[in-house]
Amino acid sequence: MTTPTPAPASGTDTAAAATIHVDQVLAERCQSGGDYLAGLIAHGHLDTAGTPRKLPEALFPNADPGVVRAVWDAALAVGYRAGQLSLRPAWAAAELHRTQDTLNAAGYATMARLAARSGTLHPPRHPADDDTPTIPAARGGHW
């Protein structure tokens, strides 16, 4: 898992730029290592359970298998709906804000804050997304 650390580009040889660069490289290594470990853990879960169908019960061996299955099935439906929403970025913000209002009205303030936060962040935007391009091609010219 050794990733070569490229040097900062010329002109950015300041201590701050070097720190930012090293931070990014190390964070990527951490993520890569975490992804690798997650795969090993997934293998361990499946190996222990013996079959994917028994995975929920393997997570909670001391609980009633019927209850675990009911909770697992409900969680799968929730995950599926969340995935559907994430695939419609143009609609997600409005839907998440409606969710916030509904949860607030029902007294679920903490969940409402989570929906509001996601509604504000979704779809993920980069600050430059709002900038007006200044390249010649944007004005009808050529590069």
Which percent bin holds the helix content?
55-70%
Structural class call reads mainly alpha
Shape: flat
| Mean residue pLDDT | 79
The total of beta strands comes to 0
How many separate helices? 5
- Unreliable spans are none
The N- to C-terminal Cα distance equals 40 Å
What is the C-alpha radius of gyration, as a whole number of Å?
23 Å
What is the N-to-C order of secondary-structure elements (H for helix, E for strand)? HHHHH
Please give the largest β-sheet: none
Percent strand equals: under 5%
Tell me what you see in this structure.
With 143 residues, the chain is mostly helical. It has helices at 15-49, 55-59, 65-86, 89-105, 109-121. Helix 4 packs antiparallel against helix 5.
In short:
The chain is mainly α and 143 residues long. It has helices spanning 15-49, 55-59, 65-86, 89-105, 109-121. It is built from 5 helices and no strands.
